[in-house]
Amino acid sequence: MVGDGDRQELRAGDVLATKRREYDEDDVRVRPGRSSRPRTRTRPRHADAVEGFVIAVDRGRYTCVLSGAGPDAPLVTAMRARELGRKSVVVGDRVGLVGDSSGAPGALARIVRIAERTSVLRRTADDDETTAEGRLERVVVANADQLVIVSALADPPPRTGFIDRCLVAAYDAGIEPLLCLTKADLAGPEAVLGYYTELELPYVLIRPDSDLAALRALLAGRVSVMVGHSGVGKSTLVNRLVPDAERAVGTVSAIGRGRHTSTSAVALRLPAEPGGDTGWIVDTPGVRSFGLAHVSAESLLHGFPDLVEATVDCPANCPHTADEADCALDAWVAAGKADARRLASYRRLLASRSGEGDPREPERNPGDPLAGS
Ligand SMILES: Nc1nc2c(ncn2[C@@H]2O[C@H](COP(=O)(O)OP(=O)(O)OP(=O)(O)O)[C@@H](O)[C@H]2O)c(=O)[nH]1
Ligand SMILES: [Zn+2]
């Protein structure tokens, strides 16, 4: 979503750049000295930068669309300018571009600015603990408005452990969750929705013949990130929402450096609703789940709003674990104020963060077919 608001944001950045320029050491203007000639007005650095929205990242090349450009405008390939230092650029970033932003074959622009992010969706890549890379906290997408959690109602069965994990990630990122329940032709949503009664979680039901109007309305004008396990129907859904998704991804990879990296996120432009704003969906083929090692125990709890209230009765610094005799969460659940399975799920996530056991171990969720991450 690259609208007028963003333009203002970048303009504000321009003003800052202008101010900073007055103190730049490498400023070439010459002091007027005794000469009566007024000193030369210097141009603020990159006043000519145009605004872009990053839709794909592939090995040091960033594919951008220019603000206000229509769906048929050429995509701009850019590299980072050295002055960005160590700042990373990710899909969803709004950036300032200089150089050749024509989008002509072979043209290369430079990213000189990254606008302040409205949200940052992170995950710990803790799927590989053996390497420094694998333990790294990564930004998945910047400036997303919504996390669309795609779960099938059957084949594969829904896993609330995964959904809970996504809810924590959404809360941590400061973006709204939307539960997207696919394969509604195969099973009803009652069990899953029952589990989340306390939450008033927004949801949509998808079957092969549904017209997707409700979902489209929720996606219009926003940047939505889609996550889901393999086989839940995510690709099917993306292809229905963005009929030329295959082509769009192909174009991105052709303009990048050839081979498409299936693990990276790609933003796809949704067909504009009549009279409405374009929306974007960010497909995350490589993100199967969210490592939450970077989320504090307290923030983790906020992914469980149905449990938060109980903890005012916990002793100070209560770890909320099952072996903490005075933890108020047990009484809360015993009193029927929240679902016992939600507490179990919260504690599984707590344990997975501190490396105590494997959260996917079946014996940790006895008799609960919905559980599992
Ligand atoms: N019955 C039914 N089947 C569906 C529905 N949506 C998708 N499928 C089928 O489910 C299977 C998996 O769908 P995909 O779209 O490939 O799933 P995915 O989540 O993209 O999986 P990956 O490609 O592994 O990431 C396919 O055989 C689809 O035809 C649905 O609403 N109902
Ligand atoms: Zn407690």
TrEMBL record:
Domain CP-type G positions: 133-290
GO cellular component, one term: cytoplasm
Gene3D superfamilies, alphabetized: P-loop containing nucleotide triphosphate hydrolases, Probable gtpase engc, domain 3
Note on cofactor: Binds 1 zinc ion per subunit.
GO molecular function, one term: GTPase activity
Catalytic activity, EC: 3.6.1.-
Annotated region (Disordered), positions in chain: 1-45, 350-373
Cofactors, names only: Zn(2+)
Purpose of the protein: One of several proteins that assist in the late maturation steps of the functional core of the 30S ribosomal subunit. Helps release RbfA from mature subunits. May play a role in the assembly of ribosomal proteins into the subunit. Circularly permuted GTPase that catalyzes slow GTP hydrolysis, GTPase activity is stimulated by the 30S ribosomal subunit.
Biased composition (Basic residues): 31-44
GO BP, one annotated term: ribosomal small subunit biogenesis
CDD domains: YjeQ_EngC (cd01854)
Name the UniProt record assigns to this protein: Small ribosomal subunit biogenesis GTPase RsgA
The keyword Manganese is annotated on this UniProt entry: no
Main location: cytoplasm
Highest taxon above the source species: Bacteria
Subunit description: Monomer. Associates with 30S ribosomal subunit, binds 16S rRNA.
Compartment annotation: Cytoplasm
Protein family per UniProt: Belongs to the TRAFAC class YlqF/YawG GTPase family. RsgA subfamily.
Residues reported in the UniProt entry to bind Zn(2+): C314, C318, H320, C327
Domain EngC GTPase: 142-288
Organism: Micromonospora tulbaghiae
Record keywords: Cytoplasm, GTP-binding, Hydrolase, Metal-binding, Nucleotide-binding, Ribosome biogenesis, RNA-binding, rRNA-binding, Zinc
Binding site for GTP: T182, K183, A184, D185, G228, H229, S230, G231, V232, G233, K234, S235, T236
InterPro entries in the cross-refs: G_CP_dom (IPR030378), P-loop_NTPase (IPR027417), Ribosome_biogen_GTPase_RsgA (IPR004881), RsgA_GTPase_dom (IPR010914)
Biased composition (Basic and acidic residues): 1-23, 355-366
UniProt-listed NCBIfam families: ribosome small subunit-dependent GTPase A
